[in-house]
Amino acid sequence: MSFTRIVKNGSVVTPEGVRNVDIGIDGDKITAIGPDLDDTAAEITDAEGHIVIPGVLDVHVHLELPFCGTTSADDYRSGTRAGARGGVTTLIDFAIPYAGDSLQQAADNWLAKARGKALIDYTFHICITRWDEHKDQIADMVKRGFTTFKEFMIYESEGWQSDDRAMFGTLEKMRDLGAMLLVHAESARVLDELIARHHTPELMKKWGARLHAITRPNFIEAEAIQRAVMWSEVTGGQLYIVHMSTAEGTEIVKAAQSRGVPVLAETCVQYLVLDDMVFDRPDGHLYACCPQLKKPADSERLWRGLKEDVVSVISTDTCTFTREQKAMWEGDWTKIPMGMPGLETLLPLTYTHGVLENRMTIEEMCRKLSTAPAQIMGLYPRKGAIQVGADADLAIIHPTSKIEVDPATMEGNADWSPFEGWHLAGFARTTISRGDVIVDDYKVVGKEGRGQWLPRDTAGLVPDRSRALHARGMLAT
Ligand code: URP
Ligand code: ZN
Ligand code: ZN
To answer: How far away, in angstroms, is 417 Cα from ligand 1 center?
Structure first.
């Protein structure tokens, strides 16, 4: 067999387990996996002493997002460079329609942001923000290759909020189209009431940025998840809870899954490794995100939820704001731009605090960071596993050697990191995307603009995919 590249001498995490094999790549695909592969014409990537894992999929990312009165600071150039350094080879962003935009226009806007800049492959979840206008555009978006949609249960002031009628109707469409609805689950009316009650000069002086956590108790997320799960249960539409942060949410999803409700859940790595003690820091306002970091008991429940497979995916919800942008708060927590950088540290945090601290095996980590996200988002088997026929997307990591997190040496545009000073293993020594080396010796070497948009024709764990394809007229009856 002829190869363009052979990855040699590594411990390779495959669907069959960890194996000491070579990986033969021809062009952009993996074409062979086995011992002692040879081709004198091939480039050799030596993975001696390293672990070779499938490229990571970060399926929850916001690049160049207009939000909270500013625009998130990582664009498709810096964001995808950051991802590459953290072994991420695919990301999924959220295309949000600006005022008056159709779903089609939202997708086109986001494609324009990515074009010429992206270093890694990408696609978008399509956000439905005005149900009556957007509902008849959903089927066309599926035909165009977008199979995941998103609704926010909060963010009225951004013009993004959906109500129960929209969620119910969208889930019916998801069922009929074989598509999936992602939901940001927080209970808007009670949250707004709690924010209003606490928005006084006295309380702001006393509690500062901690009010962000005080006004988002766990029941704000739990009630909203419960309601979204109800609409999934009665419609049969595939639901995916994004950035789940609470123990209560985990229990609700677990109970629903055991009743056969088609609900899946994602958490983000910051909910596993940080908690709301960050608000004791003088720069605690930097950590304001949405949903807010919770308590150590929530993190522990989420780790267990991952182990139990109640939580299928770990992502980042990357939404970077610089110190200057975060300073817009001027003592009023409701004005802090919400979100944190994350793409570069997803794999190192999960590897160091998950695998090295024995909370998960390396195979389990690869399922949560690669295989399950690819399967759930309709990108498998092209993405998500080291197997013949898949895209040659690989990350090569050292099993133990640690690097100090230092924003000055990172690829993202943030001038801070929630993990600054932490020592983490699992940064990519080498990242390979569709056969191209894009990170070499921990440095980004790939060409911007090489990333490709990824069309999809399914999503979720649809039991009978052909039924869904028939329903939307894509297969002959
Ligand atoms: O704080 C965050 N994560 N901002 C991004 C928007 C969202 O809700 O995902
Ligand atoms: Zn959200
Ligand atoms: Zn988000």
So the answer is: 16
Whether 342 lines ligand 1, by a CB cut-off of 6 Å, is no
Q: Ligand 1: which residue has its CA nearest to atom 2?
A: 339
Dihedral (CA of 298, 301, 302, 303) sign: positive
Edge-to-edge, what's the strand order for the sheet holding 56-61? 56-61, 88-95, 121-127, 148-152, 180-184, 238-241, 263-268, 313-315
Q: How far apart are CA 416 and CA 4, in angstroms?
A: 39
Radius of gyration from C-alpha coordinates of the chain: 21
Taking the CA of residue 68 as reference, the ligand 1 atom at the shortest distance is 4
b/e code 329-350 from CB counts within 10 Å (16+ = b): beeebbebbbbbbbbbbbbbbb
Mean pLDDT estimate for the chain: 96
Instruction: Give the ligand 1 atom nearest the CA of 94.
Output: 9
Residue 477 pLDDT? 38
CA 72 to centroid of ligand 2, rounded, Å: 14
Ligand 3 centroid–CA 253 distance in Å is 19
On whether the CB atoms of residues 227 and 206 are closer than 8 A, the answer is no
pLDDT digits (tens, 9 = 90+) for 94-152: 999 998 999 999 999 999 999 999 999 999 999 999 999 999 999 999 999 999 999 99
Ion ligand 3, residue ranges at CB < 5 A: 317
Preceding peptide of 201 cis, ω within 30°: no
The pTM of the full predicted model, rounded to 2 decimals, is 0.96
Nearest alpha carbon to residue 386 among 6, 40, 27, 31: 31
CB 339 within 8 A of CB 289: yes
Q: Say which residues have a Cβ less than 8 Å from residue 268's Cβ, sequence separation at least 6.
A: 60, 243, 245, 314, 315, 316, 317, 342
